[in-house]
Amino acid sequence: METIAQKNKGFSRVNHVGIVVADLDKSIAFYEALTGLKVSNVDQIGGDRMAQVLGLKKTLIRYANLHLENINMDLLEYEQPEPVKAHYDNNQISAMHLCFEVDNIQDAVKRLKDAGIKLSGEPIIFEAADGLKSGFGTAVAYFDDPDGTHLEIIEPQGPFKRERK
């Protein structure tokens, strides 16, 4: 019997998420403090071939890689072309956010607040009044990184909870 991964020809796994940042060193410090992990490397890439694959005329990017348990993060500081700041509200089409799974939302919120990170609002725990049919007991909170990238923490229950291998 063919598995979902075989049917999808490998599109059932995510390798990394890339986040464009204004200041690589500042973002490295933020994400290392947030995750408790150290970046695996800091490097730069650019040139005609890289620009072409990105659909740009020229490019030079300083970057760092951070390896989490289930996904890698690329922090990317564009030196060429000159970066421009994007702004997305959570309800805008094509807006995205990155969600970190935690075992205890209250402990995670305390850690964020102790690090000086301001939450978008106080955490909530999903209940029937939220319009869900399942997932009750799931807790979430939202916050932004130094450049305004939307981030979330979740203590998942029900269909939001994945089996850990």
From TrEMBL:
SUPFAM superfamilies registered for this protein in UniProt: Glyoxalase/Bleomycin resistance protein/Dihydroxybiphenyl dioxygenase (SSF54593)
Domain VOC: 13-156
A biological process term (GO) from this entry: L-methylmalonyl-CoA metabolic process
PROSITE patterns assigned: VOC
Keyword flag Heme: no
Recorded superkingdom: Bacteria
Gene Ontology MF term list: metal ion binding; methylmalonyl-CoA epimerase activity
InterPro entries named among the record's database cross-references: Glyas_Bleomycin-R_OHBP_Dase (IPR029068), Glyas_Fos-R_dOase_dom (IPR004360), MMCE/EMCE_epimerase (IPR051785), VOC_core (IPR037523)
Protein name, UniProt field: Contig59, whole genome shotgun sequence
Keywords on record: Metal-binding
